[in-house]
Amino acid sequence: MKKERLDKILSHHGFGSRKDVKTLVRKGLVQVNGKICLNCETGIDDEADEIFVDGEKVVLRKNVYIMMNKAQNVVTSTKDGIHRTVLDELSDDYKINFLGGNLHPVGRLDVDTEGLLLLTTDGSLTHHLTSPKNHVPKTYFVVLKNPVASSEQQNLVKKFALGFEVVPDGNESAFCCQSANLVWISENSAQLTIHEGKYHQVKRMFKTFENEVIFLKRISVGKLCLDEKLSTGEYRELTEEELSLLLEN
Ligand code: URA
Q1: Model confidence over 195-213: pLDDT tens digits?
Q2: Residue 110 designated active-site
Q3: CA angle 62, 109, 102 (to 5 degrees)
Q4: Could you give the CA distance from residue 63 to residue 102 in angstroms, rounded to a whole number?
Q5: R_g of the chain, CA atoms, integer Å
């Protein structure tokens, strides 16, 4: 087990800069495994060692996994001059450095897309979910501008299942999409499951057939579904079971 320095661990758990942590340690406010520790360089095993600061146990954690029901007008990128970012939406408890890495969104949703967005510090989970090789399914609820008659709906189901050439978008060239599963809900709404994530993919898939997506919400990633109890803009940490579901794909 790789050990990390006590000051690094405390700094990454919200106790301020290394200098702030040094002050806490020098004051004798930090205990490691029941004994006052005066040495900032003490090696800590985050799975076995217990740290108390000023009598309060520090819950050590390497990685954080968050499910967010992303709202419209919030961008998935980590910086934006105009809109709020998904990281701005998090409480201060999450605006710290984590041991596992930086908290970042897993993939992207457009500014006007709502729904399931994962945020994590775990780069290997991000890679697992976003690598094109893994074909992780993503399901969207789609509302279209133009109603589609039932004969045309069946035609689109077949075309989406076979894959087709998707129209270009700005600098993005046309591409052949992989097989996708389209399930109609009404004459202008459907659920679409895709196994890739090209730029504006869902919008472009319908644009290819001269329709327009006027509302888009992601409802699942892999085997993980958006918790319906989360209102738009809300978020919470994943349970252990939910995390295992994500690793199953
Ligand atoms: N497809 C889109 O067109 N937009 C998204 O945000 C996600 C998938």
Answers
A1: 999 999 999 999 999 999 9
A2: yes
A3: 20
A4: 9
A5: 23
